[in-house]
Write a structure and sequence with these properties.
- The chain is of the alpha+beta class and 123 residues long.
- The chain folds into two domains: 85 residues, Sandwich (Immunoglobulin-like); 34 residues.
- The chain is 26% helix and 43% strand.
- It is elongated, with a radius of gyration of 23 Å.
- The model has no long low-confidence stretch (mean pLDDT 88).
């Protein structure tokens, strides 16, 4: 079992950041993968005296594409998954949202008809 815990912080300027807390000593060995390929230039820097470490994961340009892109963060010493993050882009997202809105509109129309029928029947 890993002695590391991962707390996501933010994504800004193409770099995803998280805070790593550990029970042991030394620099945590972190591995980040996207589509079973290691993400290059991942950095772990000491955050302060409390034993925290700041994880910087630069998003490779080739990973920005239509659909859902998943990045998996693992402990490099025992390959235990610590967390993940996703990037969603392109038309795949738009189709999903438009489909959900269309369903909501249909349900709202059905409720309006039922309410109107109820008002006519009770007057």
């Amino acid at each position: 079992m890993s002695t590391l815990t991962l707390t996501p912080i933010k994504m800004r300027h193409g770099v995803w950041q998280a805070l790593i807390q550990q029970n042991g000593t030394g620099v945590p060995q972190i591995k980040v993968t996207h589509q079973d390929t290691d993400v290059p230039d991942v950095k772990v820097t000491e955050q302060g005296e409390d034993g925290g470490w700041l994880l910087h994961v630069p998003i490779p340009p080739e990973a920005i594409a239509d659909g859902v892109q998943v990045f998996v963060i693992t402990d490099g010493t025992d390959d235990e998954k610590l967390g993940d993050f996703t990037i969603i882009a392109g038309e795949a997202l738009g189709d999903d949202i438009r489909g959900e809105v269309a369903l909501l509109r249909q349900e709202l129309d059905m409720l309006k008809r039922a309410f109107r029928r109820h008002c006519v029947e009770t007057t």
